[in-house]
Amino acid sequence: MMDLFKFNSIEIRDLAVSTFAIALIFAWNGGSIIPIINMNFIITFIVILIAVGTGFVLHELAHRTVARHFGAISEFRAWYNGLAIALVLKILIGTTFIAPGAVYIWKDYLTSRENGLISIAGPLTNVALAIVFYMFYLMHIPIISDIGYHGYYINIFLAGFNMIPIPPFDGSKILSWNPKIYLLTTIPLAYLIFFH
């Protein structure tokens, strides 16, 4: 079994680049070739970087750790074409669409249950982080509340986005493993995304 917490230099680079790019996309209003750099943007970027850094990185590491627990080789790889597409969409139409990369898993055979547990680990990590960030938001302390606000919404967004039941999203693997668990996870997330 691989060391659960061992990283190589490629993984560290890809996680860092993806985290920076996602934070830029969330912080940037879009509609221009480059973001307007001012103090407000810098503060927003730093706040979102903290929120994204925890949400995105821990989501991917949850997949990676559970996969390694089941004896699979697993490493994160950035999808640089996806990051470029996300930046172009932000420039042209100001929309946020993110496909930064994924944890790639190699094993001769994974059961449906193992695959489902690996897949659900990421969104559940985001839900747990959203609860923590919401508590920060409720403190009503400048900067900390801002981090809490952005951390909550980014983590709910990441969890919900990844529960889309279409391959290669996590939701498709969870649904094929256990439809009841898929619904128990997705219905509350859908409520939080669309009605909260």
Provide structural commentary.
This protein has 196 residues and is mostly helical. The protein has one domain. Helix content is 68%, strand content 6%. The protein contains seven helices and two strands, in the order ααβαβαααα. It has helices at residues 9-27, 39-69, 80-93, 112-137, 144-162, 170-177, 179-195, and strands spanning 73-78, 101-106. α2 runs antiparallel to α4 (112-137), α2 (39-69) packs across α5 (144-162) and α5 (144-162) crosses α7. The mean pLDDT is 89.
Summarize, please.
It is found in: Cell membrane. One of its GO terms (molecular function) is metal ion binding. This protein is mostly helical and 196 residues long.
Properties at a glance:
single chain, 196 residues, mainly alpha, two-stranded antiparallel ribbon, 7 helices, 2 strands, globular, metal ion binding, metallopeptidase activity
